[in-house]
Amino acid sequence: MSISPAYAATMARYNRWQNEAILTAAEALGEEARRKDMGAFFRSIHGTLSHLYWGDSFWMHRFAGWEKPAGGIADSPAFMPEWSALCARRAALDERIVTWAEGLDAAWLAGDLTWHSRAADRTMHQPRWLAVTHFFNHQTHHRGQVTALITALGGTTADTDLVLMPPGA
Fold first, then answer.
1. What is the architecture, at CATH level 2, of domain 5-159?
2. What is the pTM of this model?
3. What Å distances lie between residue 8 and 4, 44, 103, 108, CA to CA?
4. Whole-angstrom Cα distance, residue 130 to residue 108?
C-alpha cells in the first residue's frame, strides 16, 4: 500500500485552501474570542492553530530537513503568540508545503522514515507514505476542532469538503 505524489500534492493544496478559509473565519471573531479557553485539547482557536503550525513545521523538519521548531507539544499552543505573525507565517509555510509536495516522487514515498518521537518517547520507523498521510490527517483533524470552536462562538466557516476545493486552489 502507498499513496501517490499526486495525492500528496492535492492534500497540500487542500491544506492551503482550508487554512486560508479558517484563518479568515477566525479573524472575524476577534482576538478575545480566538484566545478564549473553550476546553479543547489546545484550549483555544489560537492555541490549536499555533499547535498546528508547530506540528506542520516539525513534520517538515523530519521530511525535508527544514528548521526544527523549538519546544515540545506542551509548548506548541504558545509557539506563535502573535495572531498577525501566525497568519503570515502560516501562509508562507503552506506555500512551501505545496512546493515540497509537488516535487515528491513515488520512490521517496516508498522509502522509510526514522525519527525519535518525544511524544511516544521512542524511536519510530514508518513508511514515508504513512507518515505523509498522518501529516495531512493531523492537519484536517485540528482544523475540524477549530471549525467546531468557531461555530460554537457564533462564527461561520467556508466549505471544508475536499471535493468542493476550487480548481487551481
1. Up-down Bundle (1.20)
2. 0.96
3. 7, 29, 10, 12
4. 12
- Dihedral over alpha carbons 143, 146, 147, 152 (to 10 degrees): 170
Give strand ranges (E) for the chain. Answer: 112-117, 122-127
Q: Alpha-carbon distance 134 to 4, whole Å?
A: 14
Summarize pLDDT for 105-126 with one digit per residue, the tens.
999 999 999 999 888 889 999 9
SS3 content of the chain, % helix, strand, coil (to 5): 65, 10, 25
Domain boundaries, the chain: 5-159
Q: Work out the angle between the directed axes of helices 83-102 and 5-29 (0-180°, nearest 10).
A: 170
The three grid cell numbers given for residue 54, joined into one nine-digit string: 508547530
Using CA atoms, how far apart are residues 106 and 87, in angstroms rounded to an integer?
Answer: 32
